[in-house]
Amino acid sequence: MIKHVLNIGILAHVDAGKTSLTERLLFETGVIDRLGSVDEGSTQTDSGEIERRRGITIRAAVASFVLGDLRVNLVDTPGHADFVAEVERALGVLDGAVLVLSAVEGVQPHTRVLMRTLRKLRLPTLLFVNKIDRAGAREQGLLADIRRRLSASCVPLNTVDGIGTPAAVTRPVAGPYEAAEVLAERDDELLELLVDGKTPDQGTVRATLARQCGDGVAYPVLFGSAITGRGLPELLDGISEFFPAVPRVAEEGTATGTVFAIERAASGEKVAYVRIRSGVLRVREPLIFYRGQGRSGDDGLRPTGSAGTRTHSGGQVDAGHGYEARLTALAVTGAPGESQAVAGDIVRVWGVPEIRVGDHLGAPGPAGQAHFTPPSLETVVRPRVPGQEPRLHAALLALAEQDPLIGTRTLAGGHTSVLLYGEVQKEVIGETLARDFGVEADFEPSRPVYFERPAGTGEAVEEIQRQGRNDFMATVGLRVEPAPRGSGVRYRLEVDLGSLPPAFHRAIEESVRLALREGPHGWPVTDVLVTLTRTGYSSPVTVAADFRGRAQVVLARALRRAGTVVYEPCHRFEAEVPLEAFGPVTAQLAGLGGELREARRHGEGWVLEGEIPAAVVHEVERRLPGLSHGEGVWWSEPAGDRRLR
Fold first, then answer.
1. Residues in a beta bridge with 565
2. Cα–Cα dist 461/366, whole Å
3. 311 SS3 class
4. What is the pLDDT of residues 399-440, one digit of tens each?
5. Which of 390, 405, 468, 526 is the Cys-Cys partner for 85 at CB 3.0 to 4.6 Å?
6. CA nearest to 581, candidates 629, 637, 541, 521
């Protein structure tokens, strides 16, 4: 009988062997009787045609296995950085994570981005070093890299004999002393034993490691191979020992949960994946879903999937917006016969056409900061066949329901732009449009997502003209001024709420938010406070359209008077280069607009840290091998913005 549920994610840099590890876990636990192959496109979790052909994970997938009385729901997430949005959604429903590294390639750039996020979230994490049977695999050198680049609080639990050969095998680390030294930094009892010259017993050390791993401050490390199965028994033991499971108890009450993925059945019907937080979920009971809150704390833009259009972080759908639903069917992951879902379960639900990723079941979700930054690139997309523009736009809106970070906006001339993390994502969107929606699309070269902030304060008023030509029978006055960084779009009233009918107030605010998608320089305006300073109308002549039209004109004039400054997204970078490459590399970084903040000697080379425009990161990555004789190592992550130069 299943008494506990554990939801864990498998995370990795692309090609570290993440999907192969998922396949091996399912095989070792008896879920499947034959191992699938990523190369052959026969794995359980890469079920999409594009995933099978490309050999990469694009959408998060869920599989289950059982360890005693524990059901483990395994979420296989994309490894490619272009699909980090899928990883972000998965993190919100996980109880723990297995971060996979390659024993050959070691700590790769995206590995560091993932680990920083896991540490920030304090999510219990176990590191699995894969591919010990591959030529070039390392152990001690890699452990040193892990401690230097990921966390000093890493505790290896096994070691490898014959590493780098097909005969590589694992065995437990001899003695608990090294692990105790790492854990003693956060445990007074262990520290006291070590100071007294005593060696703590194995049970005490593992119990301390389980506690610190559960708190997200220490990280067990296990070596193994997804291909040969070496190290897999230790990994399964570690999953059940070090991660905090959720008791599977049917506590009556309104079910609450989070929607983290959407797919479409063959019939076209939406199927949503929901992590249940509390209560009991049953079919045909009345439910309320709430639209996900806008996140706060981000500089720049935040796309929203609610309408497939991009708004600013302050302009998303109100968390109080709810809609009623009754499920027509549900399926508990790992328990096909279950008729209800309880806390800890991941469940697929049918019968809610309005449902979108990020929605919350039963109660509004908390506002929170995004785990990863929003996309920093965009591209203009056009149908290859003239006249298919409406069909293309509808297809992009449908994709945005599955992935809210596929934001779109309509440009001058009626063209549509799409937000991107990278070129692979662009290719996948193009293939999906052609395969699922029958629309062949052409994409322009990607460009950075710039945005504008007000430089000062500007006001404008336009009155109803009682005589002569009058376009809009409405009076609107607006003031525009800078708002704190990361606040997005704020809107407030300086007039009496009763000065207009509610429909007219809504029309003004909607028009303001719409108009802010394109500022004086052609980019969305963010971190702005817009105040309604004056209103007037002529009953019964005035209609809501008068306020919509007038508000856009007045806002444009106020923005011009305030002035706006264009900003560009930036990356924080770290580069390791040999001594002789210091001059050429720093010269290239400066030539591409980078700013070097720190340079320090490390071993036989230099470590360079600084900031660089997001638009040129791929160019730096392309040039670095030639400048450093193939020895340079580059890592970067999105980090704020700066004024466009």
1. 453
2. 38
3. strand
4. 776 665 566 777 766 778 888 777 777 887 888 888 888 899
5. 405
6. 629
